[in-house]
Q: What sequence folds into this?
């Protein structure tokens, strides 16, 4: 038996079942108003939990489905090394886990994490975007926002500005789709595009506003030394006061537009390609410089 298996077996023997009262409180976190009241959120699945731990964020509680601890000794031992003490663990049977989780196929383990009240409206402003990429997002769909946060994390984005009116950032679907990005990305709230651009200190020709039909082709956009990619709301368009350069992704087929998260991924990775291959433009997009949209 390996050292990790011994640790997992000992933990399984000593871990208490989740009480009914705690189970009730955790189920309440499915609703936004209770997440705000408690200052807590649910993180479902081993990878997002581990991403939070690696970022130095400690859970308030970890709930494992019966048998999960002994089946995953490497993860358990690693999490204990990262500070998840025995006192924080609870177990739940299959039926209980199905009620606690928000998916039809529960992942086997979930954690209750702190989400400060400020995370719903007021956070410290981000520093200027001196180099690299930033994003300004106004997104209504939870899956789209989570996917875009994950893309931003994977792309090495230096800061994400969320326009107020975005879907609840701690919505369980957002957290699940983001796969841990919440805990690694610098992000904050703003009340307008103007506020985000002022914080980022990016000139208009490098504020790249995604548009399905108008603007310069994506590969002509300026991305060096920095660029702020703006993705508008699926229904309501751009954040108020957004000034910059319209950029379009050519679509030679018949589709009217792309899913906003798909478009964000294309824009991010074209910018990365330019920067890493030395093709990044400094003066691109002058035809639309300063255009207010």
A:
């Amino acid at each position: 038996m390996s050292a990790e298996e011994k640790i997992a077996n000992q933990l399984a023997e000593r871990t208490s079942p989740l009480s009914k009262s705690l189970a009730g409180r955790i189920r309440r976190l499915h609703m936004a108003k209770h997440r705000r009241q408690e200052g807590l959120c649910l993180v479902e699945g081993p990878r997002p939990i581990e991403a939070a731990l690696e970022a130095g964020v400690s859970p308030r509680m970890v709930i494992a489905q019966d048998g999960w601890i002994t089946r995953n000794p490497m993860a358990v031992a690693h999490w204990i090394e990262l500070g998840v003490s025995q006192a924080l663990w609870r177990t739940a049977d299959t039926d209980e886990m199905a009620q606690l989780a928000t998916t039809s196929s529960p992942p086997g383990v979930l954690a209750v994490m702190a989400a400060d009240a400020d995370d719903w409206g007021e956070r410290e402003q981000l520093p200027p975007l001196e180099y690299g990429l930033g994003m300004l997002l106004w997104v209504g769909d939870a899956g789209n926002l989570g996917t875009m946060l994950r893309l931003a994390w994977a792309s090495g984005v230096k800061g994400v500005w969320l326009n107020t009116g975005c879907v609840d950032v701690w919505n369980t679907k957002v957290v699940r789709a983001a796969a841990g990005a919440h805990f690694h990305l610098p992000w904050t709230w703003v009340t307008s595009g103007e506020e985000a651009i002022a914080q980022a200190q990016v000139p208009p020709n490098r504020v790249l506003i995604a548009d399905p039909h108008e603007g310069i082709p994506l590969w002509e956009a300026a991305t060096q030394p920095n660029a702020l990619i703006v993705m508008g709301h699926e229904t309501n368009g751009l954040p108020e006061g957004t000034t910059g350069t319209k950029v379009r992704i050519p679509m030679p087929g018949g589709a009217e537009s792309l899913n906003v998260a798909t478009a964000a991924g294309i824009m991010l990775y074209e910018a990365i390609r330019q920067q890493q291959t030395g093709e990044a433009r400094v003066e691109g997009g002058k035809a639309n410089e300063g255009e207010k949209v």
Remarks:
- The chain has two domains: 3-115, 120-277.
- The first strand starts at residue 16 and ends at 17.
- The chain has a mean pLDDT of 90.
- Residues 37 and 109 are 24 Å apart (CA to CA).
